[in-house]
Structure formats: structure tokens, C-alpha cells
Amino acid sequence: MRNNESKVALVTGASRGIGAAIAERLAKDGFTVVINYSGNVALAEELVQKIERCGGKALTAQADVSDPEAVRRMFDAAEAAFGGIDVLVNNAGIMQLSSIGDADDANFDRQVSVNLKGTFNTLREAAKRLRNGGRIINFSTSVVGLKLENYGVYAATKAAVETLTAIMSKEMRGRDITVNAVAPGPTATDLFLDGKSDELIARMAKMNPLERLGTPEDIAASVSFLAGPDGSWINGQVLRANGGMV
Predict the structure, then answer these.
(1) Domain ranges, residue 114
(2) Which residues are catalytic?
């Protein structure tokens, strides 16, 4: 692969949380970063300014990843601005917890549309448009291994993403493109912390042998490895970044 200074990384759901940490880390690594967001332009623009103050290069790209036409336009914009995309990080996702018995249709349909269809939409474009020698990094969850109550629909969407990851890694044969997934455990983000009691958060932090929650920077480091030259021999794998929880 060319050195990172000539490469472009598109990070979905990058305006906050793990996505923002990934965008910052990849910019630090030398990538030009396209920061996708769905609704909050202010946070996305603030992140661009932060990256640029540190000497990096970034721009925003609004798109709801569940909308295939919006995803096509986002790829078009990145290609128009920078000539192409080398790294796709499928970080955008939502989590709505409930038992399977209590999950309503809206709950199910929204998680499938963003977590599964959204990932499919970007993978379909990347399969045709990612530059040779590129990297695709999808996002799963360690709950696929833990199988915790109330995570059924969410974990099911991510299990499907893991299957897409393995199959696409084979379909990219001959183009020197790797396709992997990162599966975080409990990570201290708004997505994880919202709606949970302090007692539940503390209990989940103790579930892994390192006895703490992950940080967005922990997960960004895993993505950095897979996106960079040191990760070039890792392909079709799921990296469970969870402190040894499962």
C-alpha cells in the first residue's frame, strides 16, 4: 500500500463516540478522513476543525447509511474531492435493547436498516469502488459471543455483519483488499452508557479480566492496526477488542 499520507479513509457514524476516536486516530496516522454523519452537522464540523488544528486533513459527508442512494452520493463526493477511497470503516450503528418478546416492529426494522442494511450499502459501493490495496473494517459486537439477554436483535444484526465480512474477504480476491471486523466489548460511549444504572455499568466493567470498560481510543487503536501496513496479513477475521471478556 502507499504511505498513509496519500490515502483516504471514510468513517461512517464518525461525529462522536468510537467513530470520532477512529477519525482522529486515522488522521493522526496520516489518512485524509471523510467524516460521515447522519444528523449532527455541528459535531462533525467540530471534529474536522479539531483534526485540522492538529495538522490533519478531513471533511464531512452527510448520509443516512440505511439509504442506498445517499451512500452512493457520499462515495461520489469523496471521489470528487480526493480521487478515491482506500479505507472504509463501517462504524455507524444503533442499539435498542429489549427482550425478543418485547421488541416491536419499529425496534427491529430500525436496527436492521442501520446496522445490517447500512453496512451492506457501503460494502456494495466499496466492492466496486475501493482502490486496490485497500482495507474494509466493519463493526460487530462482543455480545455475539456473550449472548446477553436483551441484546437479541442488536446482536443478530452484528452476527450478520460478521458473515458479510468473511464472505466479502473472499470476494475481494485479486485486489489486495482485506475485509475484517472489530467487535468491541462494553465501551465508555454515550451509546453504551445511556439508560444503564451505575451498578450495571460497574458490573459490566468487571466482566473482563482487566476490570474496566474499554475506551473509544482502545477501539480506534484496533482499527488503526487493521487499516495500516502491519495489518496487511489479517483478512476475513473478527477482532474481539474487549479486554478478554469472551
Answers:
(1) 4-239
(2) 154
